[in-house]
Design a protein that fits this description.
- The structure holds 3 protein chains of 3 kinds.
- By secondary structure, chain A is of the alpha/beta class.
- Chain A folds into 2 domains: about 220 residues, Rossmann fold (3-Layer(aba) Sandwich), CATH 3.40.50.300; about 90 residues, no CATH class.
- Chain A is built from 12 helices and 14 strands.
- In chain A, strand 7, helix 8 and strand 8 form a beta-alpha-beta unit.
- In chain A, helix 7 packs parallel to helix 8.
- The two termini of chain A are about 40 Å apart.
- Chain C has one domain: Orthogonal Bundle (MetI-like fold).
- In chain C, helix 5 crosses helix 12.
- The chains are: A alpha/beta, B mainly alpha, C mainly alpha.
Chain lengths: ~350, ~350, ~325
């Protein structure tokens, strides 16, 4: 239902691909929303479907072997069924992307200035000189020194952090209302990861741009997110505001993720907790809950796919996919006094 | 290049976690190849040609009753009840009789074209395969040493490759072929007479070396940066051992793809050299020499050019189709080039 | 960039030196027998052979021989003893035909190779792609002399649409110049068209899946703009490099087979005729000149490549 309040509304989105080894369901009935100006963090392991989801929002995964169901509403426009022309208008102009690896995302044989300017000229009716001026302005804004000369440089002449700043500049160039950043700091040095992320978040807040930030780092989530969506095995398993997620997580996978964050205020001798097992195959997924094979709390009902529902009366925006009863969850998620995922064989429950 | 296939997982309390089995890239490649009808057909056809050529002596003895070098220029043969000259008074040889003798006709010397085609095919194939063997062995060795050790070894070897590569293949082949045709070769233990079949094989094998060595060298350079090479070095493996056990196996798919390509190129180059007279020396047959003989009589007997020409194109085409099928099967990126599923 | 050019030129010079030594080895040193007799050809008298031996320095140490040989080659004073003509003069006479052949064919195969490659890459795996791919493979598998002979037979002998050979200079009669060159151009181009189309198709399909193409689409660029600005630019650069080298090879006599079939009396045919009679001096000179041409062309192309693809000069 699109009641016009949300900037982006994803409703029951499913994305599948026909491959050599079978049909892969990369995104499985995903539903979430995003408000204007909000920062939403999308969390999950590799293979959880987060990249496919974000790419599919603007139709970048369309291919002969891809099939889609469900809807994505952006500002009243439905994107899944939209013609390519409409999507071209929206991409880069309304919804901008910051990719994971800035090195490969930029054309190695074209100058940086050309690449920023071509995006501007695709969405606004300006001449070449004006587009270049705007590009210099943007590069300045994201902190690239000597922008006027560097604009004629090629991508390999920049360091990793600078490259990602260029991507941020490109993303902001047409004043988008939504930026989708797919693990924008993974390819960068650890020392500047935090800096780049903060700069990005600040710029978004300054301009009132909404941001979907894909990450697997809970530290980042805690610092920057307004709301969080957790994905596993192609499905959204939990979504909530950041405080609700940290205070009252409802899904065992979330407990596992929270529990595995290294803590500086704990003794170092203990082994880092992990979640046993491996992510499910998306070709032959388990029946029922995708997390059940790894979940120590699974029970009979888990062979039935849990519905993504809000189960807490005072947190209407907090939805999860777990059949366990709320009180059980609040009890089971405490391992040694902290939130985490118990290890060992599942215990049978009443 | 591993693909993961999951065994079906049953679910229930106390069940074990699902296990993942890795399918090696060759298994996947074979599976892809099996589905490629065109490539398989081409491969079978090529094998058919090879078998026929191997059976050349059998055909000569039992079917055509003549050898590839026997000329019947002044004889006559019975066709459909009439006696005809094998080679007419004005020098035009008989066309295809579609009978056991002179199945495809005779050439200007009265020799049986079909027999010469099979023997010529033998020669062309022998030269093609031996040349490829020479090229692959020498080129891989050069590429391994140059790519792994780098430094001055690499510089020297690359310069040598550049030198060979500077000459257009056929020109170089012609140059060496002409030189050696006059007197044969004698460098140390290598003694070959001017008419030996191995001379074209050596020439072609030699000329093609840079086309294999350069790409493989590039791969070796990339591979030596990989972690498993570092690991082997830490374990004190010698350079030679690393090259053989770590790098060479990873080159296998490139080599496998290059081999059919090189066979095709070698056969074409041999045909070209023989056509010019710098390859297989007459009177030995080769598809190239047959075509060059046939061109002289093309107005009256076009089949003298068409028969060996078609054979040549067909054989090389089959190798190329099969080679491309192998390349598609081994290259994971090739999947996206065949988006039809 | 300038440092790169200097370095590349230096490399080229070394290779040229090595090429000259190698050519010398092939012709004078490695084969069996008396080099003077070989040069003299089949119809020489003992006195001629002795004179040749003196003139080329075969009675002197090997490095003197090398200097004599190279001196003769590069001052254009090599004489074909069998034909009693100066080799370089003869080459000069054959140049117009060879260059006409090379330029025309080069243009045709570049344009059509790119066209066919692009057509194939539009809808990969579909009927058009598979058909063009098969045709390309067939043309790659066909030796030029087979294509040439067959074309000659059908267009010149069987019918009389086109002349059966010979070369008419452009300045004499442009129409006839084209007529006489049409079949040679097509015959020479076909295998190249096949090869280039496959290479371009591969490049385009690879480029289409590169991250920067994805990014360009994500920026909202129209697919046509993405194709031209990003995909084509990256795909065509390697093609240009290939073309330069092949072109140099053709000029240098690599079109030896085509010229022979169509009797164009160019440099390549001169080489072919010399082979027939085992006349060594012309072959030696032609091979040497061609190699020099290719090495220089390769160096020029490397520099151009570095200019077009900025990643290169850093890694050289």
């Amino acid at each position: 239902m699109n009641d016009g309040k949300h900037l982006l509304e994803v409703d029951d989105l499913t994305v599948s691909f026909e491959t050599e080894v079978g049909r892969v369901r990369a995104v499985d009935h995903a539903s979430f929303f995003l408000n204007a100006g909000e920062i939403l963090c999308l969390v999950g392991e590799s293979g959880s479907g987060k990249s496919v989801m974000t790419s599919s929002l603007i139709g970048l995964t369309r291919a002969e072997n891809a099939s889609f169901s469900g809807t994505v509403h952006y500002d009243g426009v439905e994107l899944i069924s939209a013609p390519e022309r409409t999507l071209e208008r929206i991409r880069g102009g309304q919804i901008a992307v910051i990719p994971q690896d800035p090195m490969t995302a930029l054309d190695p044989v074209l100058r940086i200035g050309d690449q920023i300017a071509e995006q501007i000229r695709a969405h606004t009716d300006v001449g070449r000189a004006e587009a270049f001026d705007r590009a210099v302005e943007l590069m300045d804004r994201v902190g690239i020194p000597q922008a006027r000369t560097r604009i004629r440089a090629f991508v390999h002449e920049f360091s990793g952090g600078m490259r990602q700043r260029i991507m941020i500049a490109m993303a902001l160039s047409c004043d988008p209302r939504l930026i989708v950043a797919d693990e924008p700091t993974t390819a960068l040095d650890v020392t500047i990861q935090a800096q780049i992320l903060h700069e990005l978040a600040d710029l978004c807040r300054e301009t009132g741009t909404a941001l979907i930030l894909v990450t697997h780092d809970f530290g980042v989530v805690a610092e920057l997110a307004d709301r969080v969506v957790v994905m596993y095995g192609g499905r959204i398993v939990e979504q909530a505001t950041v405080t609700d997620l940290f205070d009252d997580p409802q899904h065992p996978y979330t407990w596992g993720l929270l529990g595995s964050v290294p803590r500086v205020d704990r003794p170092r001798s203990a082994r880092l907790p992990t979640i046993a097992g491996a992510p499910p195959s998306l070709v032959r997924p388990p029946t029922g809950c995708h997390f059940a094979p790894r979940c120590p709390h699974r029970f009979e009902r888990c062979v039935e796919v849990p519905l993504l529902e809000a189960r807490l009366p005072r947190q209407p925006g907090h939805r999860d996919r777990c059949w366990l009863n709320v009180d059980e969850k609040r009890r089971l998620r405490l391992v040694g006094g902290e939130i985490g995922l118990a290890s060992g064989a599942p215990r049978t429950l009443a | 290049m591993n693909t993961q296939e999951l065994l079906p997982s049953a679910l229930g309390p106390g069940e074990e976690l699902p296990v993942e089995v890795a399918v090696g890239s060759y298994r996947l490649a074979v599976r892809r190849l099996r589905h490629n009808m065109g490539a398989l057909l081409a491969g079978v056809l090529f094998l058919g040609v090879v078998v026929c050529c191997i059976c050349a002596p059998l055909y000569a003895r039992y079917v055509a009753h003549t050898g590839p070098l026997d000329n019947h220029i002044s004889e006559q043969v019975t066709v459909g009840g009439h006696r005809r000259d094998v080679v007419s008074l004005i020098g035009i040889p008989i066309g295809p009789t579609w009978h056991a003798r002179f199945l495809l006709g005779a050439d200007f010397n009265g020799r049986d074209v079909a027999v010469r085609m099979l023997y010529g095919g033998r020669n062309s194939l022998i030269v093609g395969f031996s040349a490829t063997a020479i090229t692959m062995i020498v080129a891989v060795l050069i590429a391994l040493f140059a790519g792994y050790y780098r430094g001055w070894v690499d510089s020297v070897l690359t310069r040598i490759l550049d030198v060979i590569w500077a000459y257009p293949a056929i020109l170089l082949g012609v140059a060496i072929g002409t030189s050696l045709a006059l007197g044969g070769i004698s460098i140390g233990p290598l003694q070959l007479s001017g008419g030996s079949l191995y001379i074209p094989a050596l020439i072609i094998g030699f000329v093609n070396i840079p086309y294999v060595a350069k790409p493989i060298r590039g791969q070796v350079i990339a591979l030596r940066e990989k972690e498993f090479v570092d690991a082997a070095r830490i374990l004190n493996a010698s350079g030679l051992r690393i090259m053989l056990t770590e790098i060479l196996p990873n080159l296998s798919s490139t080599i496998v793809v290059l081999v059919p390509l090189m066979i095709a190129n070698s056969i074409l180059l041999e045909a070209g050299l023989s056509y010019l007279g710098a390859g297989v020396q007459p009177p030995n047959p080769s598809w190239g020499t047959m075509i060059s003989d046939g061109v002289k009589l093309i107005t009256s007997s076009p089949d003298l050019v068409l028969a060996p020409g078609l054979m040549l194109v067909l054989t090389v085409l089959c190798i190329n189709i099969f080679g491309e099928g192998m390349r598609d099967a081994l290259d994971p990126r090739a999947v996206r080039r065949r988006t039809r599923r | 960039m300038n440092r790169f050019i200097v370095r590349r030129a230096f490399q080229a010079a070394i290779v040229l030196g090595l090429v000259s030594i190698f050519t010398f080895l092939i012709f004078q040193v490695i084969p069996n027998g008396d080099p003077a007799a070989r040069l003299a050809g089949r119809t020489a008298t003992p006195e001629q052979i002795a004179a040749i031996a003196r003139s080329w320095g075969f009675d002197r140490p090997i490095y003197i021989q090398y200097l004599h040989t190279m001196g003769k080659i590069f001052t254009g004073s090599v004489i074909s003893y069998t034909q009693q003509i100066n080799v370089v003069d003869q080459i000069r006479r054959g140049l117009p035909a060879t260059i006409s052949l090379a330029i025309g064919a080069g243009f045709i195969w570049l344009v059509f190779g790119i066209l066919v490659g692009l057509l194939s890459s539009l809808r990969p795996g579909r009927l058009l792609d598979r058909t063009l791919g098969f045709l390309a493979l067939t043309s790659i598998s066909s030796p030029v002399f087979v294509i040439g002979s067959v074309a000659l037979y059908f267009f010149a002998y069987r019918t009389s649409i086109l002349p059966s050979g010979g070369y008419v200079p452009l300045t004499d009669n442009p129409l006839h110049w084209v007529e006489h060159l049409l079949l040679p151009w097509i015959s020479l181009s076909l295998p190249f068209i096949g090869f280039y189309s496959r290479v371009l198709r591969g490049n385009v399909l690879d480029a289409k899946h590169e991250d920067y193409v994805r990014m360009a689409r994500a920026k909202g660029l129209s697919s046509r703009r993405v194709l031209v600005r990003h995909v084509l630019r990256n795909s065509l650069i390697p093609i240009m490099a290939l073309w330069g080298l092949d072109f140099a090879g053709v000029i240098g006599g690599g079109a030896i087979l085509i010229e022979s079939i169509f009797d164009l009396r160019g440099v390549g045919q001169y080489a072919a005729e010399s082979i027939q009679v085992l006349d060594v001096p012309p072959i030696m000179v032609i091979v040497m000149y061609t190699a020099v041409l290719v090495v220089i062309m390769a160096a020029i192309i490397d520099v151009l490549y570095a200019y077009l693809d900025p990643r290169i000069s850093l890694n050289a």
